[in-house]
Here is the input.
Amino acid sequence: MSDLQTQTLVPQLDTIFPDWVRPDDRAGYQGYIVETEHLLAVAKALRDTYGYDLLSSVTGVDYLPEGKLEVVYHVFRTTGGPIFVYKVQVPRDNPVVPSLVPLYPGAELQEREAYDLLGIRFEGHPDLRRILTWEGFAGHPLRKDWHEPYFEEEAKPYKSRWPEGQVRRAEDLNPFADNVDYPAGFDPESLVPDADDTLYKTLFRVQQAQHPEIKTDAIVVNLGPQHPSTHGVFRMVALLEGEKILDLKPVMGYLHRNHEKIAERNTFLQNMPFTDRLDYIASMSNNFAYALAVEKLMGVQPPERAEYIRVIMAELTRIVSHFIAVGFLLNDLGAFFTPSLYGIKERELIVDIFEMVSGSRMMCNYFRFGGLARDMSPEAVQKTKELVNDRLPRKIDEFDRYLTENEIVRQRCEGVGVLTPEDAIALSATGPVLRASGVPYDVRRAEPYSIYDRFEFDVAYGLHGDIYDRYLVRMEEMRQSVRILKQALRDLPEGPIMTGKPAYQVRVPAGESYGRVEGPKGELGFYLVSNGKPNPWRYHVRAPTFINLTSLAPMSRGGKVADVVAILGSIDIVLGEVDR
Amino acid sequence: MNGKGILSGLLITLRHFVDTYLEDLKVGRKRYGTAEGIEMRRSSDTRGIFTIQYPEEKLPVPEEFRFVPFLVYDVKEDGEKAVRCTSCGICAKVCPPQCIWIERSVDAATGKPIPTPAEFFIDVDVCMNCGMCAEFCPFDAIRMDHDYEMASYDRHKHHILNKERLLKPASYYAEIRPTSYRREEAEKAAKEAAKAAARPPAGTAA
Amino acid sequence: MSEQERRTEPYEIPEEMKSQVAVTTLDKIYNWGRSNSVWPMMFGLACCAIEMIATAASRYDFSRFGMEVMRPSPRQADVMIVSGTVTKKMIPTIVRLYNQMPEPKYVIAMGACACGGGPFKEGYTVVSGVDRFIPVDVYIVGCPPTPQSLLNGLITLQKKMEQESIATSRWYSKAPSQPIPIPVLGPDLMDPRKFDLIRQQSAAKKAAQTADGEVENE
Ligand code: SF4
Ligand code: SF4
Ligand code: SF4
Here is the structure.
């Protein structure tokens, strides 16, 4: 095979490694199952020989009936093309898998999450600690036999609601009169809480490894979880030497709302409004990705008009999100509130449209499998046209004049928080962060979904990979979104907005699917496993900002404390999505 | 020149500031406190002041706006309330956070269920205002309210809405959601007509 | 005369003096000043925080109520707007922040999550309402409450403040105010006020398990 071929064709892993790999032949599944011992070798070959350079998602599935835990890897090529999936299976009672962090540093946080929620131990992981729950938490919540304190039934709808629905609050049924549960015979007084000791220890370990001979006075500084510049309840623990950052650990989970556990109890449709609350600034694009994943499983296709409206909503969402991102980046730089005010002003006008079409400003819950919840009224179309054709381009230009050449912005942002293209890929960054580093990867182009192949637009990218480029990429993306919006509004056809009848119970055949979109903050993916029941067996969100946070520490090391705040702002995190 | 960027940025801020007064002068008194003024401030060529002076002015919500649900009842000719809900339970089944509780009525004599709810509860401390219940109710009996001014001092007393608290007349529904109300009424009338046409007129048989 | 009336109409003013003097009570001035300069703490938890920011921004602008001074430090804040889902990992921090706020202090629970758990209530790390740990003054319904309903809630809080009196306020009373014990993260969240209950119930659980085990063994 020529080099070009190996780099573009989808490799037949089972013929390349016949002894190590077998195809995943369960009905509705794709990809390959790799022997655990050979995982590293296969992953390395895929990365180095076949060009799958970006590890998009790592997650686990608990196949309780078979007594197995499965780790699922999604990789893709930053040159474009579909996603490639391979898995390893391990016994439930001793789940040990080699860590992929040495190959793909971007797996770090994701493997920690799989360890935390499913109890899969990754051998060779540099810092395997709990991430979303806390040190000392009892059990691994996403295991199928683990029940939450308010457990009622395995799946919704619950029988107690109808026909003899006696209203009661869940806490009234719990023996502890609260949302808690303790191991049998537990004595609270005997407990010594962890109090972040494990966390601080890992920080100092780094220091000692770097300078074993010197005993410098490095200090630990906590930023957050309540801190005005952390964009919500996010926490960073920095190890400082003077003003310089020696090392930094992101600490999260302060908004861990058990999205995935709840989603596995919900029916497929019931998850739609929950996805709104992931990245709550961009609810329409969450809806989009989830609808795509379920539609893939169901094999339905939305009608033309619905596709156009979907694109319109997704692009409006991108503009909202970027306005907020840029506004808050400026907040972090110290330009307190005026730039955000201007951004939020435009957001208000756009959320007016969301409110008109979907009923809610933020939590749109607008997409359905095979279409949309309701049609876009002519007034809403008219209003969108006015905004898109006139106001938004004007305002984006104004924003540009307002900030881009500002000397303070340039001085604070240029050359700060640099991420090289190689690092960005290795750290699994996506979205504006990846593109600003000079890798023009955009899912809308790389693997067009919906009807994105019909529109003309350019993929914005930067060259320096610093904060300033991330800012520029966002500004340019807003312009490109306006461009797409103009085309979509021009071509918006009449017609139905739903394939089939709206139904509250959908039949989803067994199998797995991965739906992904280019969200405003990066690649947003939903990995679903259905076993033919009304509820998903596994529901995993590949949250872009969670994974982009992997690159926070490498970007900040060696920098100043004040810059960390700006770097975090340039990643543009939303805690609903980071912690889920 | 160094500092030019900052200056041009400041000019934009100044422009926003000046616009406020220019716009006030141009539009005059009707800019504040009138429906027209509010419309002007939310249109796509709004300039200057953008603020809606709640509570003196209120931003009108669009028809689709959803807050917490309410139950619709029709008023019969004799003034009695006819609750539309048949306690079919679909809303309770579809509700994502499972915050609807419905107790079906049972005929005391026969023990058979009657298609009307004996009680109906919504816990607004759990409700996510998603509108799914209204979307899938086959009897147009539950709809999303527009009343968002629901702050209270005591959630334990006020936040579980019972049937009595949830019921609102169809006229209220027609007022807040005129288009959907009219569409549904038309659909219902069409259905009635189709039914009447299908049924052979009385007295002609045999 | 009810309490309310007495406060609004304290004294008869002679007709000829009406234009020269205004009689009010200390309470009234005190409350007027307080309720029009409520400084919220800059503190957002989840989705609702975005609506809180929108309320602070130009369209709804709560500086019209003297509330625009968002304080990043609890020491300078008067009201804590709990805007979003309260998780078990976060509640120790929230209680600590509340303890650090100086009196008079108020808490607004914004949105379904802060009021009573919200849509994520059934989740394993979600606290069923922030009022399980700290006292809440005003509850605002909605998921998320629109900015206008948050403003409505803030006005409701102002009304509450206007009803208060210096004579009966807890922050001028002699008794020292007690900080709220900070919850501990163990195998699950532990409220120090409930240690006895936890011990009892866990012991009961163990007893039930051993009994079960014996039944199975037989
Ligand atoms: S409100 Fe509608 S869906 Fe719910 S029980 Fe009544 S009739 Fe059925
Ligand atoms: S609006 Fe949604 S959450 Fe609320 S009662 Fe209806 S279905 Fe349930
Ligand atoms: S009440 Fe709703 S909008 Fe507010 S934090 Fe909770 S889930 Fe988010």
